């Protein structure tokens, strides 16, 4: 009788487990990124694509910071080769001489100096095209092997559409630098608004690839954390921190677009006060995005808020019942956020050297990535 009862209980438990498994497999099949057993290859493709995108974004930041972005006048969807000889280089240089940036900023550069900034922009554009080929080629390879689920095809279409539009957004952004500036700051440069859209589009591509790749990899290893009350509080605070970080990064592109990092090179005060005098002249919404002192102050405040929220996320992760892996990622996010504030302060005090600004960009991406990985681990 006991054996029969035990067998019945085991059969009932096994049936329930199988039923639950079948139920999970059948739930929303249209969002399944990979077919069973192919999760690792699809995850590695997505994470690799995110890494390539991060490289393109880093090169884009370098191009903006060393003022190379307006050196190429022509734009072609499939790209163009570098000039072959001095005559072709001179032809490109003469085109550049017609732009406001050359006439007001780079009027004293020679042909060799022009070649350097031209090559920087050319590399950035080609990296963008290569990243698209890598993503598309990977998708085609996985599709031919039958590795992608319906959700994988949908994700491929979404990322491809963003990547294709990014090319035209970049063209639209660069065109703004060939006109006389319409913002408060009259130095010839690309529109900070268009720059922020260009960056946000790239960040969306990076986020879609990294989030889904990490999520898929964690599901494969059964390391997705169940959403207990303690974990839910970490998740909610993490989402709020991610939103704050997004606003901080977005405002950072406005800082870069206005060269607002050079407005005040003191800390913690901005010259003699904590709130810059520029705020006294704010009488329209656009001044919040165009007056350099105001832009830098707002970016500083958003950075402080993000650091505080990272601390709150970490404190909630210390609650009993929160898995160690989640706590480690929360701690890493806090440390990276603190480092980001320190790098920002040093960069401002040093009058925004190129290496400092690049470190600030790279570390911002590190904070974003750690927060994404933290949230991707929670069911």
From TrEMBL:
GO molecular function ontology, one term from the record: heme A synthase activity
Alphabetized UniProt keyword annotations: Heme biosynthesis, Iron, Membrane, Metal-binding, Oxidoreductase, Transmembrane, Transmembrane helix
Pathway: Porphyrin-containing compound metabolism; heme A biosynthesis; heme A from heme O: step 1/1
Signal peptide: none
Annotated GO biological process: heme A biosynthetic process
Biased composition (Polar residues): 1-23
InterPro entries attached to this UniProt entry: COX15/CtaA_fam, HemeA_Synthase_type2
Names of required cofactors: heme b
Chief location of this protein within or outside the cell: membrane
Catalyzed reaction equations: Fe(II)-heme o + 2 A + H2O = Fe(II)-heme a + 2 AH2
Keyword Transmembrane annotated: yes
Cellular location(s): Membrane
A cellular-component GO term for this protein: mitochondrial inner membrane
UniProt KW Iron keyword: yes
Location of the region described as Disordered in the Swiss-Prot/TrEMBL record: 1-30
Transmembrane segments: 42-63, 122-143, 150-169, 195-217, 238-257, 358-376
Topology in the lipid bilayer: Multi-pass membrane protein
Annotated protein name in UniProt: Cytochrome c oxidase assembly factor
Protein source organism: Babesia ovis
């Amino acid at each position: 009788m006991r054996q029969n009862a035990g067998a019945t209980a085991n059969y009932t438990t096994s049936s329930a487990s199988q039923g639950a498994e079948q139920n999970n497999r059948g739930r929303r099949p249209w969002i399944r990124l990979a077919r069973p057993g192919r999760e690792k290859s699809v995850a590695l493709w997505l994470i690799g694509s995110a890494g390539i995108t991060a490289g393109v974004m880093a090169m884009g930041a370098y191009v903006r910071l060393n003022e190379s972005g307006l050196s190429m006048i022509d734009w072609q969807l499939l790209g163009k080769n570098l000039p072959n000889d001095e005559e072709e280089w001179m032809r490109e240089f003469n085109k550049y001489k017609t732009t406001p940036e050359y006439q007001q900023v780079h009027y004293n550069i020679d042909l060799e100096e022009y070649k350097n900034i031209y090559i920087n922009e050319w590399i950035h554009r080609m990296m963008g095209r290569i990243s698209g080929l890598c993503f598309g080629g990977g998708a085609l390879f996985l599709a031919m092997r039958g590795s992608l689920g319906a959700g994988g095809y949908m994700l491929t279409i979404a990322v491809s559409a963003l990547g294709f539009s990014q090319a035209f957004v970049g063209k639209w952004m660069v065109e703004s630098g060939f006109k006389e500036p319409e913002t408060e700051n009259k130095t010839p440069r690309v529109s900070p608004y268009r720059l922020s859209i260009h960056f946000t589009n790239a960040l969306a591509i990076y986020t879609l690839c990294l989030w889904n790749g990490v999520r898929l990899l964690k599901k494969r290893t059964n390391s997705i954390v169940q959403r207990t009350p303690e974990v839910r509080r970490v998740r909610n605070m993490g989402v709020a921190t991610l939103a704050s970080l997004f606003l901080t990064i977005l405002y950072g592109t406005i800082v870069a677009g206005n060269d607002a990092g050079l407005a005040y090179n003191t800390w913690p005060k901005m010259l003699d006060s904590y709130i810059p005098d520029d705020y006294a002249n704010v009488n329209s919404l656009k001044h919040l995005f165009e007056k350099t002192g105001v832009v830098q102050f707002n970016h500083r405040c958003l950075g402080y808020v993000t650091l505080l929220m990272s601390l709150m996320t970490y404190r909630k992760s210390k609650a009993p019942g929160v898995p160690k892996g989640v706590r480690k990622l929360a701690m890493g996010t806090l440390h990276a956020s603190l480092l980001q504030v320190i790098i920002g302060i040093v960069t401002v005090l040093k009058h925004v050297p190129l290496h400092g600004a690049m470190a600030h960009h790279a570390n911002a991406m590190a904070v974003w990535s750690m927060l994404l990985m933290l949230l991707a681990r929670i069911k």
